[in-house]
Amino acid sequence: MIVYKFGGATTRSARGLETLVELVSSAHSLETKRLRRRSATSEIPGLIVVISAIGHTTRYLQRAAEHSSQGNLTSAEEYLERVTMQHAQLLTSLKFPEQVHAEVTASFRKIYQEIRALIEGIHITRELSLRARDQVISKGERFAFAIVAPLLRERGLEVAEINAREVIITSEEFGRAQPVMNETTDRLSSEVLPRLLRGELVLIEGFVGGTLDGVTTTMGSESSDLSATVIAASLGAKEVVIWKSVAGIFDADPELIPEAKLI
Predict the structure, then answer these.
(1) What region does 28 belong to: left with phi over 0, alpha with psi -120 to 50, or beta?
(2) Do 4 and 11 touch, CB atoms closer than 8 A?
(3) CA angle 154, 158, 164 (to 5 degrees)
(4) DSSP summary character for residue 189
(5) What is the pLDDT of residues 76-113, one digit of tens each?
């Protein structure tokens, strides 16, 4: 079993998404061959793909929530429109069949309406609780899911979509929730392993989890890597691969500091 995690910087262009498809298709093919040769007692082969929000989506959604709490609903809506436009442009560049394009657009519209309702509520109360913030920013992964899942299916892969809120169980520390490993392991085993045994590719959101009561949480900035390692540890994966848009680990963020050095 292998866990692949793709960051938002790698999926914000059609070229990046096509590269994702190539990498995933190749790994899934190898794991499928291993599944056919598997004995009843051996490790379960399969590929689990963890997806982050695309590009600067999380940052824009956070700003939308903050501006709304400050009484500036117009500015909040502008940030939300920016997110929607970014995904709409990416969708167009992928040249989906007309019906698939329409289905993805409908998904985008539904997510947009959910976020719009949330920021309107924040604007009315003029209060941005950590719980409300998690509700808003977690929608970025929903946008990514809406475009990556159909893309993989269009390329001939059988995809099982897993809602991270239902399997990554966390504490109620909104914004920096901690995984509850025993419950998470039980739920992942129940929901993911049967799909891997059927030869399906499992797709799940990073960054996002849920409390035992089903309330959405996030696990901190850039925590999709944590999601991947939690999943791998819970299911006994042999390998975790974190795909990035940079050559390796730098001594600073190369997007912010061009002279950052590769370690």
Answers:
(1) alpha
(2) no
(3) 105
(4) H
(5) 999 999 999 999 999 999 999 999 999 999 999 999 99
Residues 6+ apart with CB under 8 A from 65: 76, 118, 119, 122, 128, 132, 133, 136, 137
CA pair distance 27, 21, nearest whole angstrom: 10
Residues 76 and 64: beta-carbon distance below 8 Å: yes
Instruction: List b or e across 109-129, with b for residues whose CB sees 16 or more CB atoms inside 10 angstroms.
Output: eebbeebeebbeebbeeeebe
pTM score of the predicted model: 0.91
Q: What is the CA radius of gyration of the chain?
A: 19
Read off the tokens for 193: 């392993």
CA 242 to chain centre: 13
Task: Report the alpha-carbon distance of residue 9 to residue 48 in Å, rounded.
Answer: 19
- Residue whose structure tokens are 């890597």: 225
How many residues in total does the chain contain?
A: 263
144, amino acid identity: A
Distance (Å, rounded) from C-alpha 102 to C-alpha 98? 6
The predicted-structure confidence for 148-157, as pLDDT tens digits, reads as follows: 999 999 999 9
Of 11, 101, 21, 97, residue with least CA distance to 51: 11
3-state secondary structure of 53: coil
Question: CA-to-CA distance for 256 and 254, rounded, in angstroms?
Answer: 5
218 backbone dihedrals φ, ψ, rounded to 5°: -125, 155
d(CA 65, CA 174) in angstroms, rounded, equals: 15
Q: With 0-12 CB in 10 A as exposed, 13-18 as middle and 19+ as buried, what is 74?
A: exposed
Place of tokens 């799940």: 204
